[in-house]
Specification:
Shape: globular
Strand order of the largest sheet: 3-7-6
Distance between the termini: 81 Å
Number of strands: 7
Order of helices and strands: HEEHHHHHHHHHHHHHHHHHHHEHHEEEEH
Structural class: mainly alpha
Helix content: 55-70%
Largest sheet: 3 strands, antiparallel
Length: 547
């Protein structure tokens, strides 16, 4: 289970715990009364249904015995099934309420709290309280201290999916807290005072420190470097890096850093943290679809904001093809299906923006889907409607955040939209510089030579303004493009424009840089070959007939 999942359906008819626990309201007054009683607190103790007890005991035993298959089944299916039946819009029992069932087990207690608070963020209608936000942060501190401060690798194994969800949720809750503390309007003076007195709670430096510590502990960058050169990663992994828990947490932390730097608007650093991950081919380190999709979404977005449009388009196209291939393999009812579907729509939107700014040929199946999803919106962007660009950017961009708290002394107003406004300003300025380029491109395709003054008249511009736009065209159509190497920051400057030109005094000379394939000639040649083959076959048949 992960966040935000309010609309997701985790139903599964194969749930293995089918004891005599209480169902939802059945029409039987005695059973309904028992159900209501089972969902009430009695002091600090919680009357747990038998199915919840059985699940918790089995889940605890699986974790303590490092039974990965059983842990995965309990985590991805049983927990969600019980959530649907008993806690659809209410919190699970807190950790103190299950002590009678699981005893004093510190590791299981931390892992259970991770699920408990995540469920509150995802399903409880009013979301977490301020106190719960703090407690969830402390629980993550306990979890990461347990993993990082041990003298040797801890005796714990968790499925890759859960490890990814831990990192993903950790960053998500930091993102939500940043948004929460920026909304001062509606908060009491006491709540604001608590926030101002606790600046280290969900501090950006502490979040970065955790992610970098997991990366360093696992030696994941060294492992990826050796892996890319076809070596043995275990040779440089060290004691901790050879342990699957540390290795995968290190890898997922790199993706977490990519996401966090993107949310903060530092796109260069976002790509740099992945310099040892080969983005243009599948690796054995990431078998979690949600991780793959998240990686390419943030990489593509960072490239888009860095004006590396070809790399952005390549990233978006690759992950859209990946989603097409893997969608059918995901288990029905999995939250990942709905999560990836939402990101899929955002990626198509970003791809549409990138292709409007930098037209180029892409995979035909992706192009058809793009036309189906965004036909009218693409037309508006191609006409240069700024509002269309802004609306689509707002829908598809990450939810940016500020690394610093607001001015609590103001005690009013909401500042959570300020980071988005800043990124929107940068995006808008870039679009305004390029608004005339599609029109200029369309005119350049029509001629081979033309006086600059005449073409300027066609575009209702002065000659000086037109020269400025021609220089802008040259500049914007030349991008840094990845060609080889592991680092996504490497590349060569290339021009993907289908037309090029140079200016000789007052004349502009234009030439096509890309020769269109002549499909008609190819088919005509094949038809002639086929006719010749048929004639030779008929002649051969006639020659062999008895006279």
């Amino acid at each position: 289970m992960s966040r935000p999942r309010n609309e997701y359906d985790y139903g599964d008819d194969d749930y293995e715990y089918q004891g005599d626990g209480h169902e939802m309201h059945t029409g039987d007054p005695r059973r309904d009364l028992a159900y209501e009683q089972s969902h009430t607190y009695s002091g600090s103790s919680y009357i747990l249904p038998d199915e919840i007890k059985s699940f918790l005991q089995f889940f605890q035993r699986s974790i303590n015995d490092n039974q990965l298959f059983e842990i995965g089944h309990s985590y991805e299916r049983d927990f969600n099934k019980l959530t649907e039946r008993f806690f659809k819009n209410a919190p699970w029992p807190d950790a103190e309420s299950i002590q009678a069932v699981v005893g004093n087990d510190p590791v299981f207690n931390i892992l259970y709290k991770e699920l408990y608070y995540r469920h509150i963020y995802a399903r409880v209608q009013n979301g977490p309280s301020q106190e719960q936000r703090f407690e969830s942060y402390y629980n993550y501190c306990n979890l990461f201290n347990f993993i990082l401060n041990a003298d040797g690798p801890v005796h714990l194994e968790l499925p890759d999916q859960w490890l990814w969800d831990i990192i993903d949720e950790f960053i998500y809750q930091f993102q939500e807290f940043s948004k929460y503390r920026s909304k001062l309007q509606g908060k009491t003076e006491e709540e604001i005072a608590i926030l101002s007195k606790n600046p280290k709670i969900w501090n950006v430096h502490s979040v970065l420190n955790v992610l970098h510590s997991l990366v360093d502990k696992s030696n994941i960058n060294k492992q990826l470097e050796v892996y890319a050169s076809a070596g043995d990663p275990d040779s440089v992994a060290g004691e901790f890096g050879r342990h699957p828990l540390y290795k995968m947490l290190g890898y997922f932390s790199l993706i977490g850093l990519l996401r966090l730097h993107s949310l903060l608007g530092d796109y260069y650093q976002a790509i740099k943290v992945l310099e040892n991950i080969e983005l243009n081919k599948q690796t054995l380190y990431s078998r979690v679809p949600a991780c793959q999709v998240s990686t390419y979404y943030y990489v593509g977005f960072a490239y888009l904001m860095m004006r590396r449009y070809q790399d952005a388009i390549r990233s978006f196209t690759n992950i859209l093809l990946y989603i097409q291939r893997t969608n059918r393999m995901m288990p029905p009812g999995s939250y990942q299906v709905d999560l990836i579907k939402k990101i899929n729509d955002q990626i198509y939107t970003l791809l549409g923006i990138a292709l409007t700014l930098h037209p180029m040929r892409i995979d035909e199946s992706v192009h058809m889907q793009l036309r189906d999803k965004m036909g009218e919106k693409l037309t508006k962007m191609q006409r240069g409607e700024m509002q269309a660009f802004e609306d689509l950017f707002t829908f598809s961009c990450p939810r940016f955040l500020s690394p610093v708290p607001p001015n609590y002394e103001a005690q009013q107003g909401s500042f959570h939209n300020e980071p988005l406004k800043l990124q929107m300003k940068v995006f808008r300025e870039e679009i305004q510089q390029q608004l005339a380029i599609p029109t200029i491109r369309s005119f350049l395709k029509l001629y081979t030579t033309m006086p600059i003054s005449k073409l300027a008249v066609f575009l209702d511009m002065t000659e000086d303004d037109f020269r400025t736009h021609l220089l802008c065209f040259k500049h914007k159509m030349k991008n840094l493009v990845w060609t080889k190497g592991t680092s996504g920051l490497e590349g060569e400057f290339q021009s993907a424009s289908e037309v090029d030109f140079y200016i000789d005094q007052d004349m502009i000379h234009i030439a096509d840089t890309k020769v269109a394939r002549r499909y008609g000639d190819f088919f005509i040649r094949q038809i002639h070959k086929f006719d010749e083959f048929n004639r030779s076959m008929r002649k051969s048949t006639l020659d062999h007939q008895p006279r």
